Amino acid sequence: EKNTTSDAALSDTTALPVGISEPLVTDLYTADPSAHVFDGKIYIYPSHDIESGIPEDDLGSHFDMKDYHVYSMESVDGPVIDNGVALDIKDVPWAGRQMWAPDAASKDGKYYLYFPVKDKNDVFGIGVAVSDTPTGPFQAEPAPIEGSFSIDPAVFQDEDGTFYMYFGGIWGGQLQKWRTGTYDPEGELPGKDEPALLPKIARLADDMKSFAEAPRDVQILDAEGNLFLEGNNEQRFFEAAWVHKYNGKYYFSYSTGDTHNIAYAIGDNPYGPFTYQGLVLKPVLGWTNHHSIVEFQGKWYLFYHDSSLSGGRTFLRSIKMTELTYNEDGTIQTIDAYVQ
Ligand code: FUB
Question: Is-catalytic flag, 239?
Answer without folding.
Answer: yes
